[in-house]
Amino acid sequence: xxxxxxxxxxxxxxxxxxxxxxxxxxxxxxxxxxxxxxxxxxxxxxxxxxxxxxxxxxxxxxxxxxxxxxxxxxxxxxxxxxxxxxxxxxxxxxxxxxxxxxxxxxxxxxxxxxxxxxxxxxxxxxxxxxxxxxxxxxxxxxxxxxxxxxxxxxxxxxxxxxxxxxxxxxx
Length: 171
What we know:
By secondary structure, this protein is an all-alpha fold. The protein has 7 helices and 2 strands, in the order ααααααββα.
């Protein structure tokens, strides 16, 4: 994708591929646990707030695999795969509070989080709605090689980031 040479997967065996997948998954799990702790400390030290840190900063870092995978899919012209990665991650991520409640011994997680997440959720709904509309109506025009939906997503996202930051700042 980003200057990485393509591999010849014909020489891979299925068992070896499963082992590699498992090893990389375990690395991600352990680094994700550490990442959450570091992000919480960073939110306190900077005064940016945990809502901003989780909604924006951690989301960017943890979405890097989807970004790189989607870019790889676009590179091989697998556009449905690219959008599927993004929307599939969104769908799966929305089940995390449910599964977290099963394994968490406190009150339901959604009942104790900051009300600022109403804004986060609204931004997510708006961005997803723009993507759905663009897929349904398939606009052909573009400005600087970016369609209207792309520009709207860009603008709404950065306005949302700014708004969430301003709401959560504790400096």
